[in-house]
Amino acid sequence: VEKLGYSIEHLSGSAAEFVIMPQGPTGPPTLVTLLLISLISGLSAISQMKRYAIQRLHGNDKKSVMWQAIKTLFPGTAIAILALCCGSIVSLYFYNGLNQFGKLAQTTSIIFVLAATFAIAVHLIVLLILWNSSILKGLKGRLGFRVAVPAAYLIRIPGILLAVSLIASSFAAATAVQEA
Q1: Which of 59, 98, 151, 171 has minimal CB crowding within 10 Å?
Q2: Greater confidence, 54 or 169?
Q3: Which residues, including other chains, have CB under 8 Å from residue 19's CB and lie 6 or more apart?
Q4: Separation of alpha carbons 110 and 15, rounded Å
Q5: Summary mean pLDDT of the chain
């Protein structure tokens, strides 16, 4: 290959260092993905507010409600991960005949573990914020002022940052198309 004028770069370290590093080509997409995960996880926890209030009404403690919330997240997460894995494998097969399947498996497993951990953490943080609302308001699906303000900002800030990043990326793409 070097006789043809191409050089070979050997990356030091593992793929995990490349994925976790915020610099380089993986930084902005990782930030946008984390913002989207936090937005969806926060909305998921808020949408289950009535269920949490019912569990509190039945006398469940905070730890058991958190454990049940984590257990209910896994079936949907497992289905999504399996669908993404199958789609990635099929795409990689048609792209290069599964030439770099090991690197894909290593990198995507690291990304999925980090994303799932982040999603569970955000969901539990919002659940802890919702825990401070009264049971009666929770049964009605309403948030008290002390709960609504932090929960709104936990969802609003990632939503605003996500919208700004999407607008900026669309302007960057339009500029790149005009220059090409």
Answers
A1: 59
A2: 54
A3: 26, 30, 107, 110, 111, 114
A4: 9
A5: 80
Query: For the chain, what's the residue count?
Result: 180
pLDDT at 180 > cutoff 80:
no
Instruction: Name which of 163, 162, 170, 172 is nearest 30 in CA terms.
Output: 162
Classify the phi-psi angles of 12: left when phi > 0, otherwise alpha if psi is within -120 to 50, otherwise beta.
beta
d(CA 172, CA 180): 12
Residues 6 or more apart whose Cβ sits within 8 Å of residue 80: none
pLDDT at residue 110 greater than cutoff 70 = yes
- Is 26 exposed, middle or buried, given 0-12, 13-18 or 19+ CB atoms closer than 10 A? middle
